[in-house]
Amino acid sequence: MMHPEGQTERLIAELAGALVPVRRLPPPAVRLGYWLAVSLPAAAAVAFAFGLRPDLAARLGESGFWIAGAAAMLTAVAAAYAAFCAALPDQPDWKLWLPLAPLALWLGTLGRQCLLVLSTAGAGGFALTTDFMCLPAIALGGFVPAAALVVLLRRSAGVRATNACLCGGLAAAALGAAALRLYHREDAAIMVLIWQLGSVALLSVLAAAVGRTLVERPARRPGTA
Which ranges constitute the DSSP H helices of the chain? Predict the structure, then answer.
């Protein structure tokens, strides 16, 4: 019968032999750079594939248009950074709230435009029409950014996975919405609030609900590669 000390030494040797090298993850800011390097060209390619709107140059001269677009982009960047921070245990919780500032600017810009319409055209300026293009177009523009986030999060989403997926979904959808503004001519503030931001909210919630199964890898058994 083996002595208890011998069993302990054997167990330690087996555990040590089963260890595999651990590669340190890049900081969130570096992974954000990787994500932008993939996502920005992909979102731009979708916009060019649909064809840039003919009045884009004129619309860029209007402060409300480019501020809302810039806020959407900042929301995407801040949300992606928050997603990478959420997946790491050494990052503080307050970083998860970073997307709220540009998101509030985005909502505030559209809300101000709604108030201007109300003051000039009255309630009649809020006529609603259906715009079923928004949801699939935003999902298409955010597909590659979402896939890139899944790849970048799979090695680190062991903690706060739901938060990481919610922020990641917001990042991809906001980038898709920013690209949408380059080729879709629906600019009425109330329509953007309902159809475009509504689509962003829906896609973000869906990402939080189902994304965990994509970013979490099953635990490895000792001794497996």
Answer: 4-17, 28-50, 56-60, 63-86, 100-121, 134-141, 143-153, 161-183, 189-191, 197-210, 212-215
Q: Name the pTM for this structure.
A: 0.80
Phi-psi sector, 114: left (phi>0), alpha (psi -120 to 50), beta: alpha
Does 13 fall in a domain?
no
Q: Which domain holds residue 71?
A: 28-215
Q: Does residue 12 form part of some domain?
A: no
DSSP 8-state secondary structure symbol assigned to residue 23: P
Neighbours of 23 (CB within 10 A): 7
Instruction: Decide which of 105 and 60 is more confident.
Output: 105
Q: How far apart are the first and last CA of the chain?
A: 32
Tokens for 58, please give them.
């004129």
Contacts of 90 (CB under 8 A, 6+ apart): none
Query: What is the full DSSP assignment across 100-129?
Result: HHHHHHHHHHHHHHHHHHHHHHGGGGG---
* Count of structural domains, the chain: 1
Q: What is the pLDDT of residues 64-123, one digit of tens each?
A: 888 989 999 999 999 999 999 998 888 999 999 999 999 999 988 887 777 776 666 555
Q: Is residue 20 in a domain?
A: no
Contacts of 44 (CB under 8 A, 6+ apart): 179
